[in-house]
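Reviewer 2 asked us to include a model.

Predict the structure of this chain.
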Amino acid sequence: MGVVIIGIVAAVLLAIGAGAYLTSEQQRPAWEAYSTSSTRVGDPGYNLVGKKWTGDPTKSDIAAEEKSG
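Predicted model (structure tokens):
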């Protein structure tokens, strides 16, 4: 019984310590923390699939999917 209580106390203390260490000032978004002059993590751009892509599947797309799946 004592080992269980010690484990619970240790988990609570670890959680409190992690919460104190990882404040919102130390946690930054990935686009801010890992940005360099040659990367664009936060802004992926637009029109990444082509000019004529609508996002709506056509009947031929659905039929091809049913055949392969």
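The radius of gyration is 25 Å. Residues 1-35 form one domain. We have added this to the supplementary material.
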